[in-house]
Amino acid sequence: MAQQAAPSMGRRRGRSAKAPLTSQSIVDAALGLIRERGVDAVALRQVADQVETGPASLYAYFASREVLLEHVLDAAYAQVQLVDIDDGGLGWREALAETIVNTIETLARYPGLGSVALGTIPVLPGALRLAEHELSLMEAGGITAERAALAVDLIAQFAASSAIERTVRPNGNRGDGEREQVRAAYENADPERFPRIRERAALLTSPDDQARRTFAIRVLIDGIDRSAS
């Protein structure tokens, strides 16, 4: 009778081979954890667990948690959908506005990553890709190089802070109950000290998050555009 072959010792039965450890696999694992738990809740040990290694192994790819987060942020920037002038017959202003919205939405998918963006000077390819696109749109709009350079920085700050706000208020718009409380506080404000607040209580509390964001982006781009003249 033929002798039964011994099971391979290279892999346990029922367990797939471990994927090779790479910088990309580490970044992908960190992105997944941040999306699920937020930046503050993610430690190197948790990331290491996701890629089935020890925390010390990560230092061969990233010198610290801060360096890893810079690469994670850049991977998020690389996900931003860029909107071109030719898309749907859009002009440079509309294309830039939609690109800004896409940047905010991408960062907001990873709670806390906006805070990393505010504390980081972007030098990696994902961020450079985004900045290059914004610069090309503004160049098409006749914005001077000096003004466009300042605008890129301002846009990055606006997108990051807007994403942070989304993280602080993950459910989006304020609920009707909270809105009514704020409106009542404005309406009952001291009439001698805050007459305009009382008078415009409804106007101050009626816009939803989308309306506020649309207005802010329009004001931002209007300011950039006027600087071209």
Automatic annotation (TrEMBL):
Ranges annotated as DNA-binding: 43-62
Is the keyword Transcription regulation in the record? Answer: yes
Q: Where is the HTH tetR-type domain?
A: 20-80
Record bears the keyword Zinc-finger? no
- Name the PROSITE patterns on file: HTH_TETR_2 (PS50977)
Locate the region Disordered.
Answer: 1-20
Q: Which UniProt keywords are present, listed alphabetically?
A: DNA-binding, Transcription, Transcription regulation
Entry-linked InterPro entries: Homeodomain-like_sf (IPR009057), HTH-type_TetR-like_transc_reg (IPR050109), HTH_TetR (IPR001647), Repressor_TetR_C (IPR004111), Tet_transcr_reg_TetR-rel_C_sf (IPR036271)
Extract one GO BP annotation from the record. Answer: negative regulation of DNA-templated transcription
Q: Which Gene3D superfamilies match?
A: Tetracycline Repressor, domain 2 (1.10.357.10)
Q: Which GO terms describe its molecular function?
A: DNA-binding transcription factor activity; transcription cis-regulatory region binding
- How is this protein named in the record? TetR/AcrR family transcriptional regulator
Which species is the source of this protein? Leifsonia sp. NPDC080035
Specify the taxonomic lineage.
Answer: Bacteria, Bacillati, Actinomycetota, Actinomycetes, Micrococcales
